[in-house]
Every structure is written in C-alpha cells, then in structure tokens.
Amino acid sequence: HLANYASENLEAMNPPLFLRFLNLLMNDAIFLLDEAIQLEHDRGEWESLAPDARREKESSLQMFGQLGRFHNIMSNETIGTLAFLTSEIKGIFVHPFLAERIISMLNYFLQHLVGPKMGALKVKDFSEFDFKPQQLVSDICTIYLNLGYVRKICLS
Prior knowledge:
Layout: H1 2-8, H2 17-34, H3 51-88, H4 91-94, H5 96-113, H6 133-155
Helix pairs in contact: 2-3, 2-5, 3-6, 5-6
C-alpha cells in the first residue's frame, strides 16, 4: 500500500514516507560502500615509525577495522533489503523518477565489486570485516532481475 501511494504521489511537495525511506536506503548504501578502508599496514609504512606513533596507528587501525566491519554489515543488509523489496514491489522502482537513481547506485556498486574499481577494495580476510562481495553481487543481480522484466514492459 505504501509503495502504491508513493508511486501515485512521487512529485508531491511532501514526499511520501516510502519514497523517503527508499532515498535514505540508497544514500546509506552508497555512503557505506564509500567508507571501505585500505590498510596502510600492508604497505610497510609502519616500519619507519617511532614506537609511540606505531601504537597510535595500530589503535586507529583497530578502530577503523571495527568501523569498516560495521559498514560492510550495513551494506550487506541495505542491498539485501532492496533485493527483498524489489521481489514484491516493482512499480515505484521502475518509475523514471527513481529508476535512474537506482540504476546508478547499483552500477556504482558493481564498478567497485567486479569492475575497473574493484582493486580499491583490498581486504586480506573477508570474514574478519564481514566483507561479502559475492553476496552483494548476487543481491544486485536479483534486484536487476526483479525489475528488468517490469522495466521492459514499461518501455514497450
């Protein structure tokens, strides 16, 4: 019901609740992927640091590692939620008002997960950071499949 109401009122002065939810969900997905970390420790830059500076870096690294793990968990959940939503609700996602934004977000993820930017996401132990690129790609493919047929019908 919320999705139908949002579809009918996409251009209302006060955006419907479901539309605001979708926008926030997409914003979160992009933000969370952007917050992925690259570890300086692997580049050997710590060898030349004084012991105090090294301890400070290690403390920061641990904090950033925990933050990175949280961002990965939330990215997985956010994209998983979109996959779930698109399995049942399709109309609002293929509306021109929202379709380009969703396509851009999904393509942005794919560029970083399997495209030319995938080298920027370097993690030694995926499980330590809850980094699940295969699941993200699978969920993104599910979203495209869920919406692809509907989009094709809308364009016909």
